[in-house]
User: What shape does this take?
Amino acid sequence: MRGLGVVLAVLAVAAACSGSGSIEATVDDRDGRGRLAVVRDDGSLVTLLPDGTAEVEVDSGLSSQPPTAVTWSPDGSRLAWSTLAPEGPVVAVAEPVGGDVERVPTPFPSFFLLWDGPGERLASLGTANGGVSLTVIADEAGEILVTGQPLYLSWSPDGASLVAHRSDDLRIVDPDGGDTVVPVPDGLFATPVWLDDGRVVFATTDGADTVVQVGDLAAGGPADELLRVQGRAALVADDSGERLAVAVGGLSAERGLYVVDLATGDSTHVADEPGLFWTWSPDGSRLLVMTVSASANRAGWSVWDGTMLDVVVDAFRPTPRFALDYLPFADQWDLAVDLWSPDSTAFAFTGVSPAGQSTVFVQELDGGLPDAVGGGYFVTWSPT
Assistant: This one.
């Protein structure tokens, strides 16, 4: 069984040498808008263009477990997902336009996968040792590095380290083994965010306050206070590391959605309600927010452009799988799942159609109703 490192090399050679089925051959067809990766109700994994055409089956879905934790590599040339093979749990890697699927055995079924910045390794979370465990997959699945309940993580930009938030501490983790506990009081938040400039966004507790901070945790430097609120905070940074969305839950007066300028520390109150899911457009100009709709058992999508939070999709019903598996961990999934188109002009989402079918929708920002482009309960848009 080939390891992930060998798999990546093989896929790169195949992309460079193959004919009409190669990655290069599909770039012109994508017209700069990338492809959607979709998990169907039958468990198959497919990719297609944003208009619903040029569908390619990547995994047939014949496994006893449908593709889970589907995520694009940073350059958009590969997909990774977790599934079950006859020999046990595996992480699979393949080109998005079909071809061989390479499988790497893992010590546990992964429910979350996250590529490192260079696209060479995958961090994997799954249940083991009485909690949530972390391992890193390279040439093969490595040893279990950290176990906690809960456990959230983020890669350093160069892929040399991870920051992990366990139930009661923060630690810098070496993917090859070993970790260092960061001596800061734990805060009411889930996912730390490692920015491109080397700093980490996290939160601590000071009495009744949740204090959102940013600092160079790996070097042990001091941290700067960004925002002080009361309540649990979800932290979502844009790709450039310039702005941070902070969604504050609870019943305090600070409940709501804020955006913080990471250079100046200035904060903007965006909404009185924190929302359910948050993700920045690739160009960093807009924040997509899933909101609670006034309609019963419905959600909506709004976009903040720096000045106004405008309703784009008034009401839809999320698919049960997305609502149960993704919304409770929205800030962690933001690091692995892309809903925006690469050109920041549209976004994709899944919902239940009036006929009761799981459906993939694409919403253009220039107006109109969302377009139904096919069936599926999960979608993620390629980064290129």
Notes: Residues 4-17 form the longest helix (14 residues).
